Each structure stands twice: as C-alpha cells, then as structure tokens.
Amino acid sequence: MSYFENDGCQLHYEDYGHGMPVLLVHGLGSSTRDWEYQIPALAAHYRVIALDVRGHGRSDKPQERYSIAAFAEDVAALIEHLGLIDVHLVGISMGGMIGFQLGVDHPELLRSLTIVNSGPEVKPRSPKDYLEIAKRWTLSRLLSLDSIAKALGRLLFPLPEQGDLRSKIEERWPQNDKRAYLSSLDAIIGWGVRDHLQRIQSPTLVITADRDYTPVSQKEAYVKELPNARLVVIENSRHATPLDQPERFNATLLDFLAEVERNKDPKPC
After folding, report:
1. pLDDT for position 126
2. Which of 5, 112, 191, 269 is most deeply buried (CB count within 10 A of its CB)?
3. Is the distance from CB of 110 to CB of 87 less than 8 angstroms?
4. In what residue span(s) does the AB hydrolase-1 domain sit (predicted)?
5. CA–CA distance, 232 with 96 (Å, rounded to integer)
C-alpha cells in the first residue's frame, strides 16, 4: 500500500510488476479494487500502477469542489512522483475522462491512451440530455448509497450468472463517502475537452461495450476526431466491461499495448 501527496491531498496507489508502466484509472464511485481482473494479467508483462482518484478508495476525500482537470493533475503528479517518462494510461468512464484531460493538458506523458466506455465531454445537447442529467443529479442526492448500489448492480449485471458481480457492487458502493461521490459527479457534468482532441497524438484505443450507457455511434464520431485512434466493440457487455468481459477486455488491451511497444523506441522507466 503506497501513498503520495499532491496539493495537500494524500493519494493511494498500488504498484505491481516490472516493465513499461501501465496506469489504471477507475470510474466514479469505484477504486483500485475494480481492476482486480486486469492487474494480474497486465503485471505479467508490464509495471502496473492503479490509482485511487481523489475522493475515492483509500485516497483522501477533501471537502472541496472537485474537477476533472484537478483529477488529471493528480495523475500527472503521480507520474512525476514515480519518476516515469510516460505511461500507457487506461481509464474507464470517469477515468477515461481523466485520461482525455491528461492527454490534452500533458500529451507528453502518454505513451498510449485507452478509453473504456467513456467520452471527451458530458455536455447536454438536447432536451432529452438535459432531462437525463437532471434525473441522475437529483436521484444521486435523494437516494442512499445502498439504494444506488442495488440499482447499479441490477443495471450493470442483470444476468442470473452475474450474481457475484452484483454482490461486489452492493458491497463496495456504499463504502463511498457520499459528499465526495456527489462532488465527483458534479465534476463530470458539463465537463468537456472535445474541442482539443487534436492535442492527443499518442496511439489511442477506444473500447466500448455494445450495451454501454451511450451508443457505439457516439464513440465512432469522436474516434474520427482523434489523430491516431481506433475503436473496438465488445459484445454482450455493459458499462463495466473489465468486470463483465475480463478475458476479451484483457486480450484486446494486451494486443494494443504490445503493438504500441513494437512501433516505438523503448524508453526507460
């Protein structure tokens, strides 16, 4: 269990394996624990670093207004703390947003970028978008974390054979700090860097579930705006693809990382 400090906040991270660094960034209300099916597979080939984002997991939960830009600065500070030149960053959902922000603000820190079930903006474009965002914002404040956990479990893992995954959500989600969770949700709403995607020159893999919250077509649209990106669709998956399709996800990610390494001159850690 390791910690470092940035901007007065103590942040928890885990460090496994050896080789080129792969930095894992989780989503809203999650933690390093949700990479449990990826860390062993990746650590067999790479140095794997998993961060608890500010306000999550074992990291501090300061009573302040959070932002995606500040989360990205925490990631940049971790990279500096570890003395790394650049990293393969993998981010899911909110973690993908943090990856986009880091790529825009500090493109030199990315050896590659993998975005999982995410996008470069959360800005309402239609009355339906405004309604959905308002609904989520309101329900997150009205419902207890236990109620949210049960609803999420059913939404993310609806199949009978996914009972263990539902149990994980129902156990872990209520462990969040409600205030920090809401502040992180507020950081997401209205955020966006889509107008600056040309700054991200590193090889980029966008992985989307076929049954994610947002349609595949939305990912196809922004992938075209990235200088060096491709899209992979994983079938029979929802928003938590690393958990509900770990073997396919891991194989896709490992193939991409290996290809990036073949096409780059090795850089020392």
Report:
1. 85
2. 112
3. yes
4. 21-244
5. 15
Domains of the chain with bracketed CATH: 2-123+192-262 (3.40.50.1820)
Q: Say if residues 55 and 61 touch (Cβ distance below 8 Å).
A: yes
Over residues 4-14, the pLDDT tens digits come to: 999 999 999 99
Q: Residue 117 — left, alpha, or beta (φ > 0 → left; ψ -120 to 50 → alpha)?
A: left
Give CA angle at 148 (138, 142), nearest 5°. Answer: 30
Strand partners, 51: 13, 25
Task: List the structure tokens of 200.
Answer: 């991200």
**What are the φ/ψ torsions at residue 109 (nearest 5 degrees)?**
-85, -10
The residue count of the chain comes to 269
- Within 10 Å of residue 259's Cβ, how many Cβ atoms? 13
Task: Find tokens 């209300």 and name the residue.
Answer: 29
Give how far Cα 200 sits from Cα of 32, 226, 262, Å. Answer: 25, 7, 20
Q: Answer positive or negative: Cα dihedral of 137, 105, 79, 39.
A: positive
List the structure tokens of 171. 């156990």
Would you state the structure tokens that stand for residue 34, as one six-digit string? Answer: 């949700």
